[in-house]
Amino acid sequence: MQLFNAEFHLLSSLCDAPNIEGAARQLLRDYPKVVRAFPLLLAWRRQMTLLVDAETARVEVFDFAPKDVLSEIEIERYVRFLGESGLLDLLANIKSVPDYATGVEVGIDTNGRKGRSGNLAVKALTPHIERALENLGDVDFWPERTYAWMRAQGCPLTLDMAGWKWDGAFHSQTTGRWVVMEINHYGTTGSKPAAIANDYIARERELLLLGVGFLWVTDGLAWKAMQPVLKRAFQEIRFVSTIQLARDGLLEHALRSMLGPK
């Protein structure tokens, strides 16, 4: 992580920029090598294939090898990438890129524990949640819901779930079905991500027996070194997503599948 510390601090200048796209263009002109940090914030390799038009399935391949100078055409491509990948949304909702990269700003402390207050991963997802809700039409969303609140709204939870909390809850006005969502980010490896994955696998099984859907959105560099754990989660949990996949349509697809008629 220290290798990219300079780039992360440069990107932090975009976090409070009033015109974030304009500021990104200027940053790319002044410090073109900052592009090498882009894929790290998405836990990806140096080269990335990005879906840029969901309707036509058009994709572009972006390479993040550092250059001394970028042309204006290249700058516009990178700005488009920042927008299409969701990184501009992310940068607009955090205060420090170095902190985000190590998981601090999304609630991960040195032991990998997850805080729930002010979860910035939820904020980064907000534009994509709003778009999905607009397209779905009859679905309500509430962030940070508790067992007691869910039960009061008629969600069929059992008493042994009394201590459970979720980062978000969706409800279909048409079918009456519920989906709960967990969001987390891991910048460093450890035992906690594996324990969380196993816990979510077990929890989804219990929820499905009650007719309640489960969606897990997770991100961060730690997963690059813990691929077997993540692979098992993808195999066991019906809907696991990254922020980028959520943006590319997986969030809406998951909600349609779980909230629609049985």
TrEMBL record:
Describe the location of the Restriction endonuclease type II DpnII-like domain by residue ranges.
Answer: 5-252
Q: Which GO terms describe its molecular function?
A: DNA binding; type II site-specific deoxyribonuclease activity
Q: Name one Pfam family in it.
A: DpnII
Q: Which GO terms describe its biological process?
A: DNA restriction-modification system
InterPro entries named in the record: Restrct_endonuc_II_DpnII-like (IPR007637)
* Source domain of life: Bacteria
What name is this protein filed under?
Type II restriction enzyme
Organism the protein comes from: Abditibacterium utsteinense
